[in-house]
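Handoff note, outgoing to incoming analyst
You'll be picking up this chain. Sequence as last confirmed:
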Amino acid sequence: MTTSLADVSRLTFELPPALEAKEPPESRGLARDEVRLMVSSDDDDITHTRFTSLPGLLRAGDVLVVNESATVNAALPAIRPGGERVVLHLSQRLPDDRWAVELREPVEHGTRPLRTASAGELLALPGGVRVRLIAPYGGRRAQEGTRLWVASAALSDPLDEYLDRYGSPIRYGYMNRRWPLPYYQTIFARERGSAEMPSAGRPFSARVLEGLARRGVRVVPLVLHTGVSSLEEHEPPYPEYFRVGNATAFAVNEARRRGGRIVAVGTTVVRALESVAGPDGAVAAGSGWTDLIVTPERGIHAVDALITGLHEPRASHLAMLEALAGHEHLASAYAAAVAAKYLWHEFGDVHLLMPGQRLNR
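Most recent structure output, in case you need it:
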């Protein structure tokens, strides 16, 4: 899988540092569901509200598809053979029980990519664990300067116990301090496996879910375990493991047959659904590793609306959003978000993208 101009969005804009969410909304005096919600809908109409308003924006018969993957403490301290201290990010557990990993250089409040690793390098981790870098991860893409490596590790403890004991959540340089793992879990988290939080689900709360149920909106799950993000590189996403069950596939297809809308909670949900969707939008149950990259050229078949955070300029996720809404709609929405001082990243505000749909106001 290689990077092409189709893999990243044409949308460019200036993101002022002041609009990067440096802390969770709870530390700003807000409940999770009180973050701001921008709604871009029919005829490029843009509405500004709070996430608590979500149930009133949907209608009976709509189906909300959520990601049940739980975040793990995927950042581990490591020491290189020469004594240099680094941070090892576990991105994905590969089918052969090896790992896709990334080495990072610690900086204030975060990390940055480390480019000097080599095959065969042996890293020392806490608890006497050794990790060996085997080869660059990504095939041809590795020749273009990939940040990920295939690595092997032998753990004496079960993985979850080891990560709980020695690891911490992945964080980047825009954060103002460390935050413990519960801040990186959504209300839907059931199955551990994501290196980074499926953050579009973070604002959901019991009261929002109760409001959706009263409205007649059904919530159904799937799983997609997220790997490391590509904040610095604007790369397409790497292959990720997903699973769409029979009940979810049936609910999506039945809702479409009855005229309901399919609302994806996060780009991870879009990637999973589109990996098992036909050109007519019909979804089948399925699981495995998906390397699908959703672009405007490819299009979106199974999703009518998307709840998502705000993404950086030229990020691959923006290409997915353009596939749903078109370049002009998305450019208008992002200009409005910058002007209204919305907050970016996993602890920031939210965008409900409903192109061609009318709000129930």
